[in-house]
């Protein structure tokens, strides 16, 4: 792997993905020597609220023996004074050895990367990309069921979820069969479908789980956001239909894993947490070895 | 001491208290070897504003050579997206080796501890417990006047102050004579009085300091909150009566120490800061060795 | 250099300035041994929003091998409960080995320094001082053009900018010729002019750049704040006149450096970023070696 910045999951080849995931698996087995990063500072620039992504990068850098500096919230920063993103990142690159950036505007990370010399990792840019989420999703799939002959169902809000679009693109790289399950109003956008078609993705769309559940190795559930619906009734109806329960999972493959990028609201019933299917908390925890691996490859780079 | 979590001061036996306070005294004398904790990350989850408790844990972990990751404010986190506390702690336990939790709901820390495998320390749960405050209070008392034949006055808002309820419970463990001094409207709640009676506490109640001041080793003052009173006049009258001044302390024992959990507003006149009685800033500083001791016992556990 | 606190640039003698700048230059060339500060904790107390100053101190302490504890925003702290600044700093000094303080009230740092035993560094007190900004400005000037026979233009809002007042005072120490360029309504305040006159500063005032641009070694631009103007029209007119463009710089000395304390809004056109004149991002980055030097001198103090 040799990238100066990680902006989009689309820039990752199959070889890149294997390199990061192999390194993550090594790290999960035996934590690396931390002295290498004793002098390394990672800058955290989150222009939108975040708990898990920010804490996960923070923890990953510290698990590597390095440290972080945090811009804090937009409200507590001089961004309020009207500074451009280009200026902000050009200043802050002087305080850190690499930057993690989340920003509400699509394309923000790409733009920022054109102004700075230190590596930039995109931690979400609006409706755009969130490549480290994709990498930890792939890691969770590979560690549990492998990539061979993989059948995955991706369910819920497929229209707005950036997680889904990135993941689907990457899954094409590992030749997965992808089933998209959503209400008509939350179907994958035409542009994404076209994009997947162009790269030869193996994709089918469904409006319910019944036809496909028993054939799946992975069921990836996403949050259906109340604010996407014009009225409460329609929301309730849709949300009720796309809720995973223990009863529903009785029809599934024993080895099926259920994933979710979290936070969840009602999409997965709490009783599912107790089943062997539930991998969503472990999935979140996998952010640590995956982000450690990524930082190690981008900053230390012994395994390029 | 062997506890997986520290949820309530009530779970601490006299032996537990001595173990923590002895270790804290050791640490205050000679800081421990910090290499043991070079790989340790403490997660800070504060769902309510806090300065001193959060900074104190942050500093204590770092004084031990470890580091921290901070969830930030609720406004900057995905808690806003409707995630349950149980889900939040199950995710964040993957980023840290132990969690410190403050939450506005009584029982939150207990509940959280049932969902995670890492140790949880309760840093305040609404009107409930705040056990590390109790430990640093006990440490301050023991270091200054000892527990033998101890007479303590606890004054101010005894109705709402969680600090007071925890402390009073623990003081019973060290056989202290406890004098509660408050206006009628801010008396210790009946449930707490009953609880103290059940465990054989040595307790008397007063509406003024005059009868008891000269008999005290410790005067523990708490903040009287304006928002507890229906009208400003009543507040002023009460607050004025329960204000400690240098003049008032002229009648006290020379060795009397004045304590306060801070922040104070007007309960202690600034001139008292200059007297030998004032121990409230030192009391706050004692949070460092006490929390270092606690983390050391819970995480390293060489002295169990 | 031997100061317990750094409150004002005015307390720095020429020898002090040289000591800090020499140490910063050493650090920029070869980072110091970081083991000396492995046990050092710097407390960050920012009562006002800040990005660059706070992150810069945070990074500088960590580049020295130490760590920091952060009070967080005022909204997330117990300052909201009505605690006085004197009480807050007396508590927090127990959690750290030195404190960096930014506060909206002029004189806050001075006042705070009278209550604590640990060193305090003023990181801005309202319209008052911001001495580490002055030091990094001086460092940037010295590294680029030196102090010998220095001619500097200071332009923009000279009335409200605390940066300017501190810098101007310090520049008198190095015998610079200072040209102040501003609209009539944003002239240097009479009190500052008087103060500069008293210490023998070499100062001239202008309402435009034309007369002086070609004679300058340094052009220091400051932000003209919209909110200072009664109406939008007047703001636009003034802001337009005091905007630096590549075209305008065609008349300047080849070696002229353009500085700005940042954030900028429209005072410097983006095309200037690409010229050799632009030093404002490097100026911000210079905050790291300068603050490392200062912390090293105040905390370690091997080079006094």
From TrEMBL, chains A, B, C:
Its EC number is 2.1.3.2. GO terms for molecular function: aspartate carbamoyltransferase activity. Coiled coil: none annotated. Residues 149-297 form the Aspartate/ornithine carbamoyltransferase Asp/Orn-binding domain. Pathway: Pyrimidine metabolism; UMP biosynthesis via de novo pathway; (S)-dihydroorotate from bicarbonate: step 2/3. L-aspartate binds at residues 81, 162, 223. It catalyses: carbamoyl phosphate + L-aspartate = N-carbamoyl-L-aspartate + phosphate + H(+). Heterooligomer of catalytic and regulatory chains. NCBIfam families: asp_carb_tr (TIGR00670), PRK00856.1 (NF002032). Belongs to the aspartate/ornithine carbamoyltransferase superfamily. ATCase family. Catalyzes the condensation of carbamoyl phosphate and aspartate to form carbamoyl aspartate and inorganic phosphate, the committed step in the de novo pyrimidine nucleotide biosynthesis pathway. This is Aspartate carbamoyltransferase. It comes from Halocatena marina. The gene is pyrB.
């Amino acid at each position: 792997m040799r990238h100066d910045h990680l902006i989009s999951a689309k820039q990752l080849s199959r070889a890149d993905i294997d390199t990061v995931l192999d390194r993550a698996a090594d790290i999960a087995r035996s934590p690396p020597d931390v002295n290498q990063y004793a002098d390394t500072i990672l800058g955290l620039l989150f222009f939108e609220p975040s708990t898990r992504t920010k804490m996960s990068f923070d923890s990953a850098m510290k698990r590597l023996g390095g440290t972080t500096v945090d811009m804090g919230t937009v409200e507590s920063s001089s961004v309020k004074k009207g500074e451009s993103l280009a200026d902000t990142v050009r200043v802050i690159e002087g305080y850190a050895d690499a930057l993690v950036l989340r920003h509400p505007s699509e394309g923000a990370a790409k733009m920022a990367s054109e102004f700075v010399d230190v590596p930039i990792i995109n931690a979400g840019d609006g409706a755009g990309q969130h490549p480290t989420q994709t990498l930890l999703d792939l890691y969770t799939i590979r560690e549990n069921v492998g990539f061979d002959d993989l059948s995955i169902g991706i369910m819920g809000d497929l229209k707005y979820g950036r997680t889904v679009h990135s993941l689907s693109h990457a899954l094409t790289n590992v030749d997965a069969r992808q089933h998209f399950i959503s209400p008509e109003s939350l179907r994958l956008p035409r542009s994404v479908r076209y994009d997947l078609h162009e790269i030869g993705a193996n994709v089918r769309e469904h409006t319910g789980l019944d036809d496909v559940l028993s054939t799946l190795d992975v069921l990836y559930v996403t949050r259906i956001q109340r604010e996407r619906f014009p009225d409460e009734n329609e929301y309730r109806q849709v949300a009720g239909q796309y809720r995973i329960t223990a009863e529903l999972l009785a029809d599934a493959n024993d080895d099926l894993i259920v994933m979710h990028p979290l936070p969840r609201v009602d999409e997965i019933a709490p009783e599912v947490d107790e089943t062997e299917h539930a991998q969503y908390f472990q999935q979140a925890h996998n952010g640590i070895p995956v982000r450690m691996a990524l930082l190690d490859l981008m900053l230390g780079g012994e395994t390029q």
